[in-house]
Write a structure and sequence with these properties.
Elements (H helix, E strand, L loop, with lengths): L13 E3 L1 H9 L7 E5 L12 E2 L9 E2 L3 E4 L9 E8 L13 E5 L11 E4 L9 E3 L10 E2 L10 E3 L7 H9 L4 E5 L3 E7 L3 E2 L10 E2 L2 H11 L3 E8 L3 H12 L4 E5 L9 H9 L2 E6 L1 E2 L3 E6 L5 E5 L3 H20 L8 E6 L3 E2 L5 E11 L2 E6 L16 E5 L5 E2 L4 E6 L6
Parallel strand pairs: 1-18, 6-7, 13-16, 13-17, 14-15, 17-21, 19-24, 22-25
Antiparallel strand pairs: 2-12, 3-11, 4-10, 5-7, 5-8, 6-9, 18-20, 20-21, 22-28, 23-27, 24-25, 24-26, 26-28
Helix pairs in contact: 1-6, 3-6, 4-5
The chain binds adenosine monophosphate and magnesium ion.
The site of adenosine monophosphate has 19 residues, from helix 3.
């Protein structure tokens, strides 16, 4: 049996709108310093500087087809040309094509000097010593000109661009093995609650499996952060304080769940208040009303989210993720939003902005948002199906089925 902590009077909480609290959280940190990473480690990172192409793309005139390098002026139906060379992709010789001749070429092979067109093999008899022209092409046909795509020295990506698969391919093609990006934020997650037991362990009466830690670690990794620790502690203020200090030493941001409300065992609240620079907040939202933010003694920001799994999920989305994206250097720190048609009627409390888990679908091109799971913030059953949050403004208490609603799109995009 644990003694209930002495009931010291709690400081007043600031009451904030969701946007006000999100802005306060965003102000806690800026983009992290630049590091140089090999391309293979850079997916999802954000460029810290503009990048210029190191070579022309293509680097030389190249063939867009399998066929023959020719001079277009030599072509007429029925003409027969000597095949004087065979140029596969990867051939590094400098070849010169004499007038009246052809050189066999594969797609991606360099077009010989003197040639001004590629005659596709389909327009010939396919000959190897001599080739018969069955149809003609104009000068320039099927030749990819040096630098027509990208010029050496041309800026191809800008600081703030997120490196998705396309950007990684472009960097490789333009000659970059390494790239300068913002360091990824290191995130430590701390779950608090004496009822928590590791998943896989048997549950005794009164115990539940710890799910916020794995959930937030996954969300932080998906946001581009490096998760350095996922720790669990009992509801003991001294233990929480010690854990916070240990995690802060290794992380750029500490995210906690649980213990931030008004109860007798709300130990994160008490640990933060004892530690100095902390603010308890009531955010006019549902779920996610009790929140706290603070700066730990070593200067590391800590975001304390409520313990209910749906509350922590939504709080991460609207408060933590934008901060992590900012630290990562992203220009756009917020998720994409869209307008959807509401599949079912929704009721919402006055004066609370409600973020409802929903599943997105499409009927003939129109997005439809179907709320999933009940209103309770303990209801995890449908969380996996939620790929959107329906955003109901503070002053709206009822939305009819079919009403247009703002939706935060939780689906992952590469950039
Ligand atoms: P609290 O914010 O600590 O009052 O917790 C609110 C509710 O969330 C309680 O029912 C807790 O048992 C539950 N909860 C808190 N932390 C976790 C966690 N890490 N995993 C699953 N449920 C939790
Ligand atoms: Mg708790």
């Amino acid at each position: 049996m644990v003694d209930a902590p002495a009931g010291a009077a709690l400081p007043a909480r600031s009451v904030r709108s969701l946007d006000e609290h999100a802005a306060a959280v965003l102000a806690l940190a800026g983009p992290l310093p630049a590091v140089t990473l090999p391309l293979a480690a850079a997916r999802g990172s954000v460029l810290a500087a503009d990048v210029a192409g190191a070579v022309d793309l293509p680097p030389w005139d190249s063939s867009a087809m399998d066929g023959y390098a020719v001079r277009a002026a030599d072509l007429r139906p029925g003409a027969v040309l000597d095949v004087v060379d065979d140029v596969p992709a990867g051939d590094t010789r400098s070849v010169r094509l004499p007038p009246g001749a052809a050189a066999r070429l594969m797609t991606g092979a360099p077009v010989p000097d003197g040639a001004d067109a590629v005659l596709p093999v389909e327009l010939t008899d396919g000959g190897t010593a001599r080739v018969r022209v069955e149809d003609v092409v104009a000068a320039g046909a099927h030749v990819r000109r040096r630098g027509e795509d990208v010029r050496a020295g041309q800026v191809v990506l800008r600081a703030g661009d997120v490196l998705g698969a396309g950007a990684i391919g472009l960097l490789a093609a333009t000659g970059h093995a390494r790239v300068e990006v913002h360091r990824r934020p290191r995130v430590a997650v701390l779950s608090t609650g004496s009822e928590l037991v590791a998943p896989g362990e048997p549950l005794q009466h009164g115990q539940i499996h710890e799910s916020n830690g794995p959930q937030l670690a996954a969300a932080a990794a998906a946001a581009g952060a490096e998760v350095v620790a996922v720790a669990v502690v009992h509801d003991d203020v001294a233990v929480v304080r010690e854990a916070l200090a240990g995690l802060a030493a290794r992380a750029d941001v500490v995210v906690t769940t649980g213990g931030v409300s008004v109860g007798a065992y709300d130990v994160v609240r008490d640990a933060l208040l004892a530690g100095g620079d902390a603010q308890l907040v009531h955010v006019r939202m549902q779920p996610g009303k009790p929140q706290a933010v603070g700066i730990l003694p070593d200067g590391t920001p800590v975001l304390a989210l409520p313990g209910n799994p749906v509350s922590s999920f939504v709080s991460f989305e609207v408060f933590v993720r934008p901060l992590l994206r900012r630290m990562l250097g992203a220009r756009q720190v917020h998720r994409r939003t869209l307008t959807a048609s509401l599949a079912t009627e929704v009721r919402s409390p006055a004066g609370r902005r409600q973020l409802l888990r929903a599943s997105l679908g499409w009927t003939t091109g129109t997005p439809v948002a179907t709320p999933v799971g009940g209103p309770g913030s303990h209801l995890l059953g449908a969380l996996a199906r939620a790929d959107a949050l329906v955003d109901v403004p503070e002053d709206v208490t009822h939305l009819a089925a079919g009403a247009p609603v703002a939706v935060i799109d939780l689906r992952e995009h590469d950039a």
